[in-house]
Amino acid sequence: MTRPPLAQTAVIGVDLGGTKTNAALIDRDGRVLRRATAATPGQRGPEEIVRTVGHLVEEVGADAHPLALGVGSAGVIDQVRGEVVSATSVLRDWAGTPIRRVLEQWTGLPVAVDNDVHAHALGEIWRGRGREAHSMLLVAVGTGVGASLVLDGQVWHGARHVAGHLGHIASPYADGRECVCGGWGHLESVAAGPAICAEVARRTGEPVARLQDVVRAAAGGSGVETDALRQGALALGVAVGGVVNLLDPQLVVITGGVAAAGPSWWSAMDQALRDELLPATADVAVLDSELGADAALLGAARLAFERIVDA
């Protein structure tokens, strides 16, 4: 019996985030065969966002005959209906988008959709830090702050698909700050990358375009940038420590662009987290991502394999 070419046993995974969108052709062993990326046109509306995803899928899937498409998308996602329930202003008018239907029409592929942070967690469980864990809490801190709880290989979505929105719990470090969701005093408004940049800009009176600029200035000894990063790290650590006490996961994985801000950020976050822990949870392992940015791509691919190809 002739075995089909490897690419013909592969799917496409898409990580649709607030800042950029990544796509990859991925096989059953979690190997990335081809990849492409583009900026997410978040302020140009759903049509342009879907168009960007469609072009990336065409690019990585050309002549490969992928079996299905898995998408991890920013926003609250109804994974059963394949629709965006709600989203922050980072993706304009994204709420209500029937993402599965429109992408099936665009690509001609069957599509499975979930939240992007849940996709991160599924990737780490499949091929990363959580390979041997029966429970894992993943926290992603980048453009926003999200989390995902995985129990025995399955994501906990909650009764209304909202489980994991860690960035929208109250934080004492964010008192008086407006959040992108429209609320006030939320963790995301102090710990996320754009919030850290905004705090530096507020203190210096100079615009800050990228978190990397803040990290570079902090490494050079600038006090304002160092303090803004530390404030975000402490806020995140306190919040995650409380969640560990609540849920008691076997393992915690911290990932995202802000988590790559350097040893000083990580040390402050980890110490704040551990200061919150009960004696019974004090030994919890808190690790960085093994897969990095590829975690969400692999998780999205796993969605496609489990919900479509092997269903």
Automatic annotation (TrEMBL):
InterPro entries: ATPase_NBD (IPR043129), ROK (IPR000600). Pfam families: ROK. GO terms for molecular function: glucokinase activity. The keyword Methyltransferase does not apply. It is an enzyme of class 2 (transferase). It comes from the Bacteria. It comes from Allobranchiibius huperziae. Keywords: Kinase, Transferase. This is Glucokinase. Belongs to the ROK (NagC/XylR) family. The keyword tRNA-binding does not apply. Signal peptide: none annotated. Coiled coil: none annotated. Its EC number is 2.7.1.2.
